[in-house]
Here is the input.
Amino acid sequence: MDLRHLRYFVAVAEEGSMTVAAEKRLHTAQPSLSRQMRDLEAELGCELMIRGAKGVELTAAGRVLLDHARVVLLQVEAATEATRRAAAPAKKSFVIGFLTGYEFDWLAAVMRILRDELPNTEVVILSSSSPDLADGLTRGKIDLAFLRRERNASGVVFTRLIDEPLIVLMTKEHRLAKRDAITTKDIAAEQLVGVPHDKSPALRNVTDAYGKKIGIDLTPDHLVDNLSMAISLVASTGGISLMPLYARNLLPATIIYRTLAGVAPTIDLSLGYNEANTSPLLKTIVSKIGDLKFANG
Here is the structure.
C-alpha cells in the first residue's frame, strides 16, 4: 500500500463519487482512479466501497481505513513541513493562531513574550476558526494556537487557559434589553442565532448540552459560520445568540449583551501545539503564556 492509494481513497470517500474525486480533487482520469481503488481492495483482500448509480458508499472496512488513512496523511504532511523548516534555518518563523476575537484579550501580552524569546524570528499571526486552527496544528502549519479543545485533533496537546460563561447577544431595542439577566423562559420564546456542528463543534456541544439541561430545544433557527455573521443576523432578525464572553469585544454600538440567570454554561479557551514539536523554546513559550491565564482568567 502506498501513499498515492491512500490519498486517492480519501478523496473518493470524502467526495462520495469516483467522477467528482477524479475531476475536482485528483485531476486524473476516472477509469484510472477506479483501477487504483480496485488494486487497493485487492491488496487488502476486502471490499472498501460499494459502487452505485448515485456514487460510492463505504463499507465497514472502508470506514475503518478512512480514519487511519486520514491520520497517516496528516502525519506525513506534518513530517514534510517539519523537515522543510529544518532544512531552511535562515527563514525562521513562528506561527501562532487565534480563534477570531481572542486577539483583543491575548495578543499584546503574547507578543511581548514572543519578542523576548524569539528576537530574530518572524512571528506570523493567524486568525481563524477553532477546527481550522486544530487542523493547522495537526499538519505542522501552525506552531501554537489559542483555540477550543477539539476532539478530532490527532497529536495536538491542549492546555486549558480559561473557562468563559456564555452571554446573550441582542439588539439595543430588544424587549429583553432592560433585563439584567436572561432567564430560560426568556430564551424559549426567542429566535436563536447559532453555529453549526462542523464550524464550531465545541460551542454547539455546549449550547446543546445547556438546552438539554434546562429542557429547551436550542437548535438554532439561523445558522452562522462565525461571530461576525451572528452579530449581523441578530441585528437583522431581532433574535438572540448565545456566545462566549469574549464576543463583547467585537460588538457594534447597536448590539448589547446580557448575562444568563443562574449558573451559566461555560466554554474553554485552550493553548494547543503539536506533540511532535519537541522544541525547548516552544515549551518555554507555552509555560510563559500559561502564566498569563491568571491575568486573563
